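lol ok so funny story. i was supposed to be doing the assay writeup but got distracted and ended up predicting the structure for this chain instead. priorities right. anyway since i did it might as well share w the group, maybe its usefull for someone
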Amino acid sequence: GDKNRSISKYLIKKAYKNTDKVISKKAEDFWNKHELWCEKDYEYKYKNTDEPSDEQLLKEIIIGVTDFTLGNRFINGKSVLKDPTIAIKYFKEESKKGDRKAEASYELGVIYFEENSVQNYSESKKWIKKAYESTEIEISKKAEDYWNKHKLWKY
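and the output, tada:
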């Protein structure tokens, strides 16, 4: 049931942190194949240990880390296991108050269109439109191309 998938999520995260690269890679593949980021966190972990989360660790490792960088790492699984829901959180923060608002909006549009676990075409349309309307010409062009390629006006 749900509890077993939560335990699975917890154990795969532990395996991913293993120094053996083969084990780490297998854990990452399993994580991505089964989209374990969708599962609830295993509660036992938080009641009986004080292990920092992946988010806390990244914030400590990367001095002056931006919301955009964190979002990028979580969507691409760089130094952490892929997690579109956490990536969305950071890209939304960046789109509100960061230096890379337009780029974050574009990334959100792409995630909402392409990631099955969080797919929402109307959200994708909203964010791509926001990126297109930005003053950043390069991002605006990318957004326009994405809009046309995926026919976002339909949503």
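The mean pLDDT is 85. DSSP finds nine helices and no strands in the chain.
back to the writeup now i swear
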